[in-house]
Amino acid sequence: SSGVSVDSECLNIFQELKLKKKYKYVMFKISDDLSTIVFDKSAETASYDDFVAALPANEPRYAIYDFDYETADGPRNKLVFYSWTPESSKVRSKMLYASSKEALRRELVGIGTEVQATDFSEVSVEVVQDKVSSR
């Protein structure tokens, strides 16, 4: 592990998404001093396309999206954790996000599916739908 800690605000915001359905998605980033995972942004209502568009093109992020999908048994929904590390990110940044992810994942109880992505094709609605449906 990288020694990066998780700010308590991240957990509070995650609980509001999970229990109160206050947000459609939340994003977290590593602080500028590289010591803490902090809240970055959220949206109370957002389409999946809006969420994908909010992912930075050149910087890593962690995100949780409240993903709705259809099954033969009717509508379902799952909390999906994203480890977003674009190819164009700085190498040091990629390594720090990769080594810090578990600190955040351990704290976020109730995540159904995890998506690791390095480009936008890996977060397409079809790819994520396949992942959530196969579990």
UniProtKB/TrEMBL annotation:
InterPro entries named in the record: ADF-H, ADF-H/Gelsolin-like_dom_sf, ADF/Cofilin
Protein's cellular compartments: Nucleus matrix
Record's GO cellular component terms: actin cytoskeleton; nuclear matrix
Main localization category: nucleus
ADF-H domain mapped to chain residues: 1-133
Domain of life the protein comes from: Eukaryota
Keywords, in A-Z order: Actin-binding
Single GO BP term: actin filament depolymerization
First and last residue of the signal peptide: none
UniProt cross-references to Pfam families, sorted A to Z: Cofilin_ADF (PF00241)
GO MF entries: actin binding
Family, similarity comment: Belongs to the actin-binding proteins ADF family.
Stated name of the protein: Cofilin
